[in-house]
Prior knowledge:
Blueprint: H1 2-7, H2 15-41, E1 53-55, E2 59-61, E3 64-66, E4 75-77, H3 85-91, H4 99-111, H5 121-124, E5 140-141, E6 148-149, H6 151-161, H7 173-184, H8 200-211, H9 221-225, E7 232-233, E8 236-237, E9 248-250, E10 255-257, H10 259-269, H11 280-291, E11 302-304
Parallel strand pairs: 9-11
Antiparallel strand pairs: 1-2, 3-4, 5-6, 7-8, 9-10
Helix pairs in contact: 4-7, 8-11
Amino acid sequence: MMVQLLSKLKPSPSLDAQKKGDTIMKKFTRTLTCILALSTITTVAIADEDAELVINGELSVATKAAAPADSALDELISGWRFRTNETQALQMDDFDNPSFIFIEQGEDLYAKVDGSEGKSCASCHEDVASFEGLKSTLPRHNASSGKLDTMETLVNNCRTERMGAEPWKWSKGKMTAMTSLISLQSRGMPVNVKTDGEAAGAYDLGKELYYTRVGQLDMSCANCHEDNYGNMIRADHLSQGQINGFPTYRLKNAKMNSIHARFKGCMKNIRATPFKEGSEEFRALELYVASRGNGLSVESPSVRN
């Protein structure tokens, strides 16, 4: 069939004919690409959903947890269980986990003096291990600002208010390296994000955003991560959209990815205009989505597709 199609693309000295031939060839290439992509769906490696995540042969990480009574999910399942066996294996050994290249960058940044005050992160927080447990509680309400604090806001507040340094961009390399390093200190601890009290308003906003259909495809977060998790979309195995592994190294772009960058990507995929990283909306959505994973273990830094 391929030979028959190619045989129809006869060369012509005419410029118009040449353009027509180029157009046909482009259409043929796109069609062939689609055929090949569809043919791989039946053979794509599916993760072992019964596998257990044990890191370095010693740290057992909970990738399943009982869902609370008010949850729309029957059971909480980490995104790790939806990855291929090969991707799962990368996260099981820190030597193989590509995130640790960026963790080392974070260690260098942690010790680096920056800003008008002549300080580094280590000047106030001598040992990064002192941040153990922080990741598992974020986002959280800040009584002084009246807003939600995320890992990124805490880092930038220290930089601007204590170090006299410029803030880092939300999802750029320096920030994700630092948030990965700090998040690592909580790895294996249960996610325990509070949604009551002063955080209740943000939680309600985040929940509303999660279920609101937007974009040209008229979809919400729940359409993929609640209604269809476990199903295949193209060559991807849909997960519950849990964020206990962020920041995460994505094989797709070979870098550490922030939660808000992932939110933006999802909104673009459904042809919606995304909110800004660090916005009130994305912070509220982060709180709600994080709370949906209460009971799962912090996996940062995880590896995903």
